[in-house]
Queue: 3 jobs
Job 1
Amino acid sequence: MLMTKFKAAAAALAFAAAPAAADVDLQFYFPVAVGGAAADTIEELTAQYIAENEGVNIEAIYAGSYQDTVAKALTAARGGNAPQLSVILSVDMFTLLDEDLLLPFDDFATSEDDKAWLNSFYPAFMENSKTDGKTYGIPFQRSTPVLYWNKEAFAAAGLDPNTPPTTWDETIEMGKKLTLRDDAGNVSQWGVRIPSSGFPYWLFQGLTTQNNAILANADGNEVNFDDPKVVEALQYLVDLSKEHEVMAPGIIEWGATPKAFFEGQTAMMWTSTGNLTNVRDNAPFDFGVAMLPGHERRGAPTGGGNFYLFKGASDEQAKAAFDFVKWISEPEQSAKWTIATGYVAPRPATWDTETMKSYAADFPAVLVARDQLEHAVAELSTYENQRVTRVFNDALAAAITGQKTAEAALKDAQAQADEILQAYR
Amino acid sequence: MLRTRGWIHAWLLLSPAFVFLIAFTHYPALTTLWNSFFTTPRGRRPRRWAGLDNYDTLIADPVFWKVLGNNLIYALGTIPLSIVIALAMALWVNRQFTGRSFVRMAYFTPTVLPMIAVANIWMFFYTPGFGLIDQIGSALGFGQTNILGSADSALYGVMAVTIWKEAGFFMIFYLAALQTIPVSLTEAARIEGAGSWTILRRVTLPLLMPTTLFVSINAVVNSFRMVDHIFILTGGGPDNASSLLLFYIYEVAFRFWDTAYAATLTVVVLIFLMGLAIGQFFLFDRKVHYR
């Protein structure tokens, strides 16, 4: 519906400007992982671009979840109808390269201005965008995990409500005070909640980074799952439940985590900055947002989606797509997007706009994610990414549920990952 | 001449069904088999002949054996139980009592609901801390459970949902079959002095055998086919503890994009199901009809 309206508007413009050169038509797939406002904002921005740029039609197609979007893009590409542009998980870069589907942005960034633009993003986000010295992804809907804490629960436990834990040890120490049990010994409030369902590797990567371990190399063909520092990090995660009893045992559901926080089931939680607006709207108590606690260092992974240019586009199409990506990442558009969704604006310039400054003054929690970027690293990404992370996730689940020791689980995962990645070395 | 025309006629009448059957069943099955002998093509590497390599991978794949084992537990756990519950419910609502329509409807409701909705409802039941089970448990003084989050119980948690969903569906078939049993048979048995148990065992159950065959084939097929709720409930975790064959195939095909290996797994499932169906029809078909 909206699509036809865009086209009509664009067509009307094109007629007004006639006789213009032939129109450039683009297909643009985008996923939505955080609810309705995001889709509306993308369509709004696209419409604005079409209105400002004669002769370019962009068909913005909502393609479902991240998982659905990459599936659609791959299927379309196999059928010879790849979109010219898509937002897909940053970690799927190697998968898309393996399918020989991507155009590097460097090919189009020819002017000095464009080259400066390519270098204007936070380096932590660009780590998942570059390989072999080329840039294949432009950060767009990016996030990072942060610590949320319940100030009322802190005060009730006799802790300073404005001081969250800053180290692993403090997490345990405070967690013990925050874990409440009834007379029968049943827990009514846990100290901390680090969800481990679905994609446990992401939050776990916070722990490994804090312990100074890097999970994968930049070429995406080597992993360090059985690094002793990774084993130590996993042992810490397991011990939070097993040894120190400050976190619920077993696999902890990602989706139910904010709800558990609102219900007072847990005093602290680790989750994406993407939940910021959700927590602000729904937490019935005063809450704080902080960087993840550190150990050897502070650390967190980045996450979320990048823009990709697809092969099969004509020269004009690819140039138009490049221009659109450049436009949408400009501070004003980017600020609008960040405020609508909670994603971290990927360029320092965005944070310098008046819009963002007044937004942050009103809601300082949004700055935590930005400040944490200084400590953030690339999200785990390799060739055959889904399969390798699955192996890793299985190992984490096996250790968390007590099926294997941390060391044995990670050794197995390393062996399986090595076998998968053998073909890419 | 007339005979040829008869032939043409027959083929014309058959052809619509034939076209669909071939296009959507036989042709895909054959291409699946064919693809299982190649490597997965990637953009940078075209596919090449792999012979039985994919089958070697399959035999060495611990996850495959794990999900196969899970699937057997799942089938053995859900099929008999949902059939027995279905039968009990059907016998119950076949009688006259007030509120019968309401009970029938209540039993059938799970069938009408889409599996994804059902899974979300159960997700709420199972949620540790504030889910229904834990709310009732804590009122009774029990501690928190984490059914879907522990490797020992996740599969059973998934199975409970399946039984809940399937029993109502099978009940409808039993109810229909019960209503076709002539009342005169039970009356005659009663005059001969047979008790309710004997009537059930010697009259009702044998007459229900064709339905039981039909239901059990359906149940077997469903136990390999119904995986929608796994996506919502556990995603196959923890560590593949609740993953089933079809779910694993989906993952290999559409998450890992290893289409050749997914084809290999599909071939194995196809062979497995064909064997089961043939076995069920040939072994039981002779015994089910009451003569």
Job 2
Amino acid sequence: MAQTFSPQVASEQHSVANWQSRLFHSTLNNRSLAIGLLIIASLGIVALLAPWLAPHDPYLQNTANRMVPPIWHETGSWTHPLGTDRLGRDYLSRLIYGTRISLFIGIVVALISGLIGTTLGVLAGYFGGRVDAVVSYLLTTRLAMPVVLVALAMASLIGGSMITVTLLLGLLLWDRFAVVARSATQQLRDAEYVQASQALGCPLHYILLREVLPNIAGALIVVATLEVANAILLEATLSFLGMGVQPPSPSWGLMIAEGKAYMFFQPWVITIPGAALFILVLAINLLGDGLRDLSAPGGRNE
Amino acid sequence: MWAFVFKRTLIALSVALTISVLCFSLLQLSGDLALSIGGPEATAEQVEQIRVEYGLDRPVIQQFTSWLWGAVQLDFGRSYYYQSDVMDLVVERLPVTTTLGIMSLAIALGVSIPLGVMAALKRGSWLDRMAMAIAVTGQAMPNFWFGLTLIIVFAVKLQWFPAAGSDSWQGFVLPAIALGYYATPAMMRLTRSGMLEVLEADYIRTARAKGLRTGTVIFKHALRNAVIPVVALAAVELGFMLGGSVVIETVFSLRGLGQLAWNAISRNDYPVVQAIVLIIALFYIVLTLLADILNAVLDPRLRAR
Amino acid sequence: MSNLLTVKQLRVDLPVAKGTLHAVRGIDFHVERGEMLCLVGESGCGKSMTSLALMGLLPRKAQVNADCLNFDGVDLLTVSERERSNLRGARMAMIFQEPMTALNPAYTLGNQLCEALRRHQRVSRRAAHDRALYLLKRVGISAAEERMRQYPHQLSGGLRQRVMIAMALMCEPDLIIADEPTTALDVTIQAQILHLLRDLQQEFGTAIIFITHDLGVVARIADRVAVMYAGEVIETASAQALFHAPSHPYTQGLLRCIPTPGKTLPGSRLQAIPGVVPSLIDKVAGCAFCNRCDQADERCHSTPPLQTLAEGHLSRCHFAHQLANPANLNAQEVTL
């Protein structure tokens, strides 16, 4: 029986159930994207302009001015808006310079792990078969290793420093990149334009770099934001445990570790760097959520 | 089903083997073990004696096979620092870490599943928004800092729970919250999206068409199906929690595996580090295997495979 | 015989992004005890919305209005949700289009069959089990005892639809609403299911509202037919009258679309109704079908009244009387 089908009416009926919440979420996420970008951009500027923005030398010790409380305490002063630490160093200046460490480690780790994970994932997804089996095996092995513990042990062997932490985390955090790149490539492998390139005899590197990579880039960027956030948290953790960035560097994790002994009487010594970490990671996560919804409308929750 | 379990077990075993190779290399990388054991004051003869005594003069392969043979029999050698059997140390500390892990998981599940279900049922409401806010903030909070904040608020200011120690169950409450909170967002999101998907399913309409009560529809028909992927995630998260215990146990001074690992790392006590890394990896492997089997039990469709 | 279900001026409105979708725009029909009423129409004409409105299964945002919505003395517009759910499954049951997804994959068939009965009647587990077993056998499932312990994925689509039918019969309802129950099935299975429904209807005396887009199916099973177009019932008649004297251009168009063996020449183009259904987002002025109707003139810009052609034969067309006159009739006959 010939049916005159009206797609317009049907699709409208279908979407009726959840259009309201979809609208709600899309504005929410656009807003989260905007807020995330705004915070990250400002912190990026802070990191770049640290020498001009910081009111004091972050390494300058002043034993006469130890543990000055921040401005919102009665005894606080504008000389040290966020107070000073146990060695009399200006907390705000250390916080500003700490932005550099967090952002540097976050971004470089994501680049290294992104390179490793994407390469493995794309190869596994494109070739399948044995290559896929080997990559899946590597992935399972990597997932079974407790990241914090392995990073701690390795850092203590090699000696903790910013470079060590960056390299270690870069070598450890590639799993999510590999998982996403693999499944995205698998879907692309059978796409007609990829098969057309194969039929035309395009060299392998051309197909992978020009046809596959641009098409999985969106998904990888979302993973990258997650991994930047993850790396920043892990750096802080390692530094907190004394195996990451070493003193006197103003790493936020290290600042919390150094303030731990004073936290019962001056909680702000750990609250301030903790809040900085929280805001930065929150902003990156908001950005990631917003991006995910851009690349797949309604993606996060549906 | 049994072929599937067999294949998964085989993969699990080979992953465990790879990790033990990695762990052993860790020991080799740590430099001249005889020097570490002997300490800075040891004379050259003493070092040589230690080398023979610990079998460190043998070829690396031979050392590895004998270490592995020991590991299979749960004998990880002697700790340099504590001067006792590594396994004894581990067995002594294990209950604290497993208690912590299970309590954390219970808290994470207890928060994330009801919250995820309610968020899905009241989609777009203030409750949904609050749940999403918890998810977003939970993922952004460094857990050691959250732990310290909990100590300041609940142990020092309010004095509801002790700040440290594993003598009583109260000592576990704060660390379990700090560790569990980190796993909550992912499980809550998964519960929420699973419920949203399932609530749209035809069989939910069928259940309602039968006149079943709302509670029966939601809990018997919807939740049962929505929770299947959450179970798998929970097992994996428990594995991560055991790995993450190193941070939380240090913050709360709990005498568990994590704290032992951290102490061992700071003292270059590598046989202990090696053993703990391997044991936590094995836990993770077993848990993911269990998750797969549990999934098959919960989802009749998977049993056919 | 008194009417089991009386529907007068039923309207269903759904809020959508661009305004309000008037999915059902004031329809009248009734169902007598033990009869088979077919609700016919194309996708989006509001027939599924009507059935969900009757069952009370529409999304909460949907607005249901009517002058009368009476099910065996119960006013469905004012009953509490609690009473409504007491009716659902017990006195009115529903069979859905997609047997593959309509059963919960996590529970055995026995479990899902028994729960409706146990919800509505105080019966023992044993009695519910026996009833389920009897009905499974009755709907033609062999090895019923074994099937009770199986999960939905272990059954084919046709078998699952039989289970759905058995499930609908568990509480011996007065009314079953079957929403395109055979559309997703192979043609041979379709025929078996239709036969089964017809037999069961006679055996149990259940009234059935059978929703379909397929006039071939209607011809096989219907006692009476209501044809829906763009949210309205445009023609109601006994099956006999509808196929012999269709009195609405849309019904006639639909009948022309059916190829008839021996009459439609091989290779000739099948007839189709040109144009598309109007959007139901805004108010539809005049006759909803006039933009596709070859007989429309200026009169059709005003809403046509429902015209009575014979006892129980109504048509919403200005030209209904001319069309009903067999002299003007160009539709083919369909053997019933």
Job 3
Amino acid sequence: MSDHNITLAEDAIERKTTTINLGPTHPATHGVFQNIMELDGERVVSSDQTVGYIHRAFEKLAERRPLYQITPITDRLNYCSSPINNMGWHLTCEKLLGVQTPKRVDYLRVIIMELARIADHLICNSIVGVDAGAFTGFLYVMQYRELIYEIYEEVCGSRLTTNIGRIGGFERNFTNTAFTKLEKFLKEYPVALGELESLLTRNRIFMERTIGGGPISAERALNYGFTGPNLRAAGVDYDVRVHSPYSSYQDFEFDIPVGKTGDNYDRFLVRNQEMWQSMRIIQQAYNKVQEFKGTDAEVYHADVPEYYLPKKEDVYTKMEALIWHFKIIMGEVDMPKGEVYQSVEGGNGELGFYMISDGGRTPFRLHFRRPCFIYYQAYPELVKDSMLSDAILTMSSLNLIAGELDA
Amino acid sequence: MAISNEYIQQKLTEKFGDQVFNFEDTYGMLCFEAPKDLNLKVLQYLYDEPSLGFQFLTDLCGVNFPENPNRELAVVYHLHNLVENTRLRFKVFTPVATPDVFTATQLFSSANWMERETYDFFGVNFVGHPNLKRILNVDEMDYFPLRKEYPLEDQTRIDKDDEMFGRG
């Protein structure tokens, strides 16, 4: 971002701007984003975004589905951290139904959510590295994301779109293999994160590319509805985990890292620090989970027969379980009436679920507050007067996920 | 430290009298409504009044209630006071025949796209919006898909010949 401007006399040269079409499937934008940019040389004069290329009408679809069938829809919002979306949805349903989850379930959820946060930030930060010219770091950390995906796989059977957990808890208990894999991750990951930091954080090229790029002040960020790491990089310490604790986050000790200028470098640093904090939370949660002994260690869901599928052997041998199984699968359980808003700290900000139930079997209205959608509006303001290549960097450092943006 | 719901209700009633009504506590969150021509006045008051300070627009969305005559469409604002950590929900209703509601873009830059989304899906016409056009759907679309008059396919319909999946 160094400035080598030559001052010219008025009318010394003829000024001309170029209009370019960046996207929707440009190799430099990670996802389906279209930007029409007016360039003066390599400098962005103004830009306008088009969104909606992968709109899949999730809110409409949700109006015809029983609660458990909406979980796979939420997977496809921010697909870099699907488990957080899933948990947020379960928490919303539990709030509406008045379900109290056992502590062990909360802690297991915290482990999964923080793993998802690390996977999300890891992708974002290493991609920022890629856009600044360091491809190696990105390929190198992929094997550590793989460790996280293996834990998901052990817990729920899938990797990217996880559909993890159920209303009231998890579909099955964590196996010993899952815990072994978690231990392996806790041991190996800090080394790799340290290496990623030593590759980028004080790297001269990286610093020159990112410092001062795409800055936003705290006031503007708040007015634009920024949340998550992007807001914290601007210096506002708002974190849903602390402000409205869910899933027993109040039992954990962790810090909220904040930045100062809200530029690409601060966003990078905030995400890196958050990964260290997530490691802290996971370690604490794992310690707490290990304190449960005997039958307490067998608890992995709350008792909600109306929504939690009974065990398969009970379905075949017990009348009651068979009835519940049928009713749940066919979506024949009426929900209580009510209006509920529940938010969780997603990978890139406050992910909110606003559900209105009219007492039927499906939500009357479900609205997702997608953090990406709200803060992407600020993009023209962020990249105005910056170089085109810095605009690309700004886009990846905002952690825009097309699936979440377009819902 | 949070501002109590009773206090917010009392302040609003002092200022707007019976123009603000239907106060409810929904799972701990205060919820109320006002006539649609007052929406900006209420938002501005909540924003400016020092003891309230709801300066963060968390969410803005539409809802369609086809069974409420003259109150078919609702615009729902979720506001947040980040300092005192208090949230509230504020609604305005509008008839579907004249869906004009004042825009909140002067107060919150974040309202821009959220209002466009609400227009796109419900057809709420935000008066004064700088760029009110469709955002997620194609520009050529001539209806508002999230309204209840456009149902999704009924999964229990039996007129389809589909032997593989038990409908035949």
